[in-house]
Structure formats: C-alpha cells, structure tokens
Design brief:
Helix content is 40%, strand content 23%. The protein contains 17 helices and 20 strands. One of its GO terms (molecular function) is phosphatase activity.
Length: 588
C-alpha cells in the first residue's frame, strides 16, 4: 500500500489535536479579530453556562457584559496589543467562581484557556484561617497555657477530621467519622445532617460521649428531622448558610425548636444546655449541617471550639463535595471508556467475545481497552492494552492510543513487533501524553490451510491458549517496555499454531493481580478456571472467568478478549452468532 501524504498526515494530526481539545477537561475558546467566538470546546461552554452553538459567532462583550472593564478584558486586550502571552487570576461574580485564565495570540485568533481555581482559593482561605488560629494560640500562650494546649488539640483534630473524611468516598461513612471525631473535643454529643437530592435531610452522623445516653440520642435523632420547626438551629443554618449559636438553651428555646411533644420527651434525657449548628458549605452549595450540643454541666461552647467547628465544617463540606465530584468523574470516565470500546468483528470461522468490568473497590476508572478488526488481507488483528492513569484522562488517552494502533495496523501487513514499534514512534513523535501496555495478536491463515497466531507484547501480560481437550498454554514471548517510551531495543514475535476448537484469551492485569497474592498464583488460577471451562460456550467461558477471578468486586479495571477457532470446513456454529464484518470486509 502507498504511504500517506503530508496533507493526509497533517489532517490526521489536526483531527487528533481537535479530538484532544474537544475531550479535555480544561475550558478553551478562540476569539477572532472582532471579539467573536470562533471556537469553544465543550468544557468551555459548560463552564460559561452556554451551549457551543449559542456562543459561536457571538460577541464576548455582548454575551458577557459583566466582563467589560474587568481583569479579563484587560488581559485579552493586552495580549492582543502586545502579542505576548499572559495570564490572570480573578473572581468572576456572574459565575460565582475564581478563575486562572491564560491567553495567547495565534493566526487563528486569541486563544483563551482557563481553570476553575475556586477549590484552591477556598483551601488557601482555610490554610490562612488555620495559620491565624495557630498565631492566636501563640499570642495568648502567656495568658493561659491551657488555651494554647486546647488550640493545639483542635488543630490536630482538624487534621484528623480532614484525613478521616478524605480517606473514604462513601458519604455516610465519612459523616459518621466526622461525628465521632467531634466528640468529646467539641461537644458532649453531636449530629451531622446530610442534605440529599430534593433537599431531603438525613441525620447520618451521630456520636455521644456517654455510652449510657447513646440509645436516647438515637431515639431523638430518628425523630429530629420530622419534628424540627423552621426556627430550629439546623433549618436556620441551612437557609442562611451561617452558624447558629445558642449558648444557653432554655425550655422556651426547646419548645420553639421542637414542635412534637414526643420528640421533646425524647430530647429530655439528653439534658441539652447549649447548641451550635454549622452549615456544611463548599463552593456555594450547602451539603448539610453539624450540630454540637453540650450538657448543662459543660456549659457554653468556647470561642476556640466554635472557631474549630466552623473550620472543620468547611473542610467536611469540601470533602463531601470532592466525594461527589469523584463519583461524577468516575461515571463520566466509565461512560467515555465504554463508548470507546467498540464491538469486535465476527469473522466467518472465528468467534469473538469481549468483557469489560470497571473497578468496584476503588474510585478510579482505568485505561483498559480491547479491539478486534480485519486487515485488508483478511487476517484478524486482536489488541488489548492498558493506558497508565485513571478516570477521564486515562479514558481520553486510551481513545488516542487505540486509534493509533488501529490505523497503523490497517496501514500494512507486518509482524506484530513492527506494529508496536511504529505505534511507539507515533506516540513519542506526536507527544501523546500517555504510556500504555499493549498486546497485539494476528490470526493468519497459513498456506497449509491451518491457522497461525503471531503476537508481541509491550509490557502486557501474556495471552493464554485453551485447547479443545482442556489443556492450557501460557503463550510466552520476550516482553518489551510499554508504548510511549521510545524504546529502540529488540522486540520479539511469538508464533504458534491455533488448532480448531482452541480458544485464545487476552486480558489485562486487573484479572489476576490482587493485594497480597503473588502474580504466579493469580495466573495459575486463570489457567485453572479456563481448564475447567473448556466445554463451555465462549460467552459462558468469559462470564465464568470473571465470576471466578473477581468474586464480589474488582480492585482494578478488567478487560478480556477471547477468540475461539471453529473448523473452517463446516458452517459457522449457531452458538457463535452471526458473522459481523465491516462494510466491504472479507474474513478470507
């Protein structure tokens, strides 16, 4: 086949770059000489609370009049006037966020990209508050050593709360940890409320310093949400997004707060003497509330306790928001990854089955992928790989690597090692920001009429060949380094016959790698499961392999690609399903 032209390569590179810009998380847009939007990526339209079509051709000063005369306009005009790239960090009130904006001038116009740095600024605010608390503790140490010791304990508490809540992404578990750490340092007992979809409030976190009163606390907490009047501290704190402190709780307060006599009776054994409610607010959103209650013997909350509780509430809110964002990012990455995992071809006498299982014990989606397609000569190419990294970045990089492998493999017939080397060179030359393991196999029809399997590996686990009689072979070959490293050393191809009735199984390392389990034992289990599954259909074999190897959940993403060789002198078996070829494809 002829080589690609420079124009073809330029178009391919341009398409790849456009795909990368379209898929990246960082917002980006381009302004023409008349200050009109000539390009906006989806992330940019989302942050600007517009649609891409709605922004294209629009005048930025008309679309966003609030920016006129502000730091953004100054940045854009300065860069356009000087031709030098520049940046600015500023608050943009209409969107209620802090942004870091970068701008530079190109022939295509003024290119602007920016990051939402609200979380960072909030974190800086918290650090400033913590530093202020330490400085105040030092300044007052001469007056009372006890105050300094108390401040130190509370700073340690903030660290403990931050660590406890950020080490899990389960909201209920994080909130319970928050409650348990708050007692007794900040209060005799506390309740932590979480506001869910539709504004529904739940008292999830509960802790009391006195074990004898824990049951009474639960009885009151079970009834509190339904019995709280709108004037109670938590509803007021949620509405105003400000703390509510009652240093001396009276019977009149209790009657005003709790409308149900049964709930007031449930509260009575707890003998509340002081209450403080803090909203859990992060990035302008209310996630719940912390309620601290002291008994009559302890007295009102001290200023240090209240200050620490307010900081802790902000940190807890950020942790809850981060947990939500992680979950959303996880879902987006999984959807993106699944959208890039296209169904395999089904050549006439080869039956293919694929499986993908996302990690269930962690919080990240990886870059596992598989692919199967026909070359122009009718040979079937099988690919499985794993892009290093997690979530959206890994899924986006996986799409780039998969496309490179498919395009380069289709370009010419060559040994798998040659294909891997060209893909590696392309990734390095095109500065693809990823490294990936990959296993490439090609099923060929030899002149003798028998199938041959050729394969090569770039840092990927060896495939396994299951024979019709149940014997299992690890197809070993010298493994090269991952793609994207620019390796110039030797690579090795494997070559073996693929008898009728045999099944080739390719998989990623998530199938057999486990904490505390040697790799050899994991692979031995894979072989044992396959040997016991020799009589099953291909789909049943794949399902059993995942069930036996993963059990109740996967620690890492898992991709499996299985191929069964049916006799070529008979019709395609019914259990293999219909033949599926690309338009104009020929399975030979």
């Amino acid at each position: 086949m002829g080589g690609t032209t420079l124009d073809d390569a330029a178009r391919s590179l341009g398409a790849l770059l456009l795909h990368a810009v379209e898929g990246m998380d960082r917002p980006l847009f381009v302004l023409d000489a008349d200050w009109r939007f000539s390009y906006v990526n989806p992330a940019g339209a989302k942050v600007l609370d517009r649609t891409v079509d709605g922004l294209l051709g629009a005048d930025i000063w008309v679309e966003f009049p609030e920016a006129v005369g502000g730091p953004f306009e100054e940045l854009y005009r300065r860069v356009r006037a000087t031709g030098r790239a520049d940046a600015v960090e500023t608050w943009f009130a209409p969107l209620g966020k802090w942004f870091h904006a970068d701008a530079f001038l190109t022939d295509a116009g003024l290119v602007v990209s920016y990051d939402d740095i609200t979380a960072r600024r909030l974190a800086e605010d918290e650090r400033v508050a913590a530093v202020a608390a330490r400085e105040q503790a030092v300044a007052t140490a001469a007056r009372a050593a006890a105050d300094a010791e108390e401040a130190g304990r509370h700073l340690m508490l903030l660290g403990d709360i931050n660590l406890a809540m950020t080490s899990t992404h389960d909201t209920d578990e994080a909130v319970q940890r928050f409650a348990e750490l708050s007692v007794p340092q900040l209060a005799d007992w506390c309740l932590v409320s979480v506001v869910g979809p539709g504004g529904i409030r739940r008292d999830v976190g509960r802790a009391h310093r006195d074990p004898a009163l824990v049951e009474a606390m639960h009885r009151y907490a079970d009834a509190r949400v339904a019995s709280n009047r709108s004037t109670a501290p938590v509803p007021v704190a949620l509405r105003s997004a400000r703390p509510v402190v009652i240093p001396q709780l009276t019977e009149e307060h209790v009657t005003t707060m709790v409308g149900d006599p049964v709930s007031r009776a449930a509260l009575e054994p707890l003998r509340p003497g002081a209450v403080a409610a803090f909203p859990l607010v992060a990035r302008g959103e209310v996630f719940g509330a912390l309620t601290l209650v002291n008994g009559a013997d302890r007295g009102p909350h001290t200023p240090t306790e209240l200050r620490t509780a307010e900081i802790a509430s902000r940190r807890a809110a950020l942790a809850l928001d981060n947990a939500r964002l992680v979950a959303v990012n996880h879902q987006v990455a999984e959807r993106l990854q699944l959208s890039l995992l296209s169904p395999p071809v089904q050549p006439d006498h080869l039956e293919l089955a694929v499986r993908y299982r996302a990690a269930t014990r962690g919080v990240s989606i990886g870059g596992d992928w598989y692919d199967a397609f026909l070359q122009p000569d009718g040979n079937t190419v099988l690919v499985i790989g794993d892009v290093m990294g997690h979530d959206v970045e890994a899924a986006a990089a996986m799409g780039q690597v998969k496309t490179l492998v498919r395009a380069i493999a289709f370009d010419r017939r060559e040994e798998p090692t040659g294909l891997l080397r060209r893909v590696d060179e392309a990734m390095v030359g095109l500065a693809v920001p990823a490294m990936a393991t990959a296993l490439v196999c090609r099923v060929e029809l030899a002149p003798t009429g028998r199938r041959r399997l050729r394969w090569a590996s770039a840092g990927h686990p060896d495939p396994v060949l299951l024979l019709a009689d149940g014997k299992v072979r690890d197809l070993r070959v010298r493994v090269g380094p991952p793609l994207g490293t620019g390796w110039v050393g030797e690579l090795a191809d494997g070559d073996v016959g693929m008898p009728d009735g045999s099944t080739l199984v390719l998989f990623t390392d998530g199938l057999f790698e486990r904490r505390g389990l040697p790799l050899d034992e994991g692979r031995a289990k894979v072989r044992a499961v396959l040997a016991a599954s020799a009589g099953l259909s291909l789909t049943e074999l794949c399902d059993r392999l995942l069930a036996e190897m993963l059990g109740d959940g996967a620690e890492d993403d898992v991709a499996v690609l299985a191929v069964r060789a049916h006799p070529m002198n008979r019709p395609r078996p019914l259990e293999a399903g219909p033949e599926v070829l690309p338009p104009g494809g020929d399975s030979g």
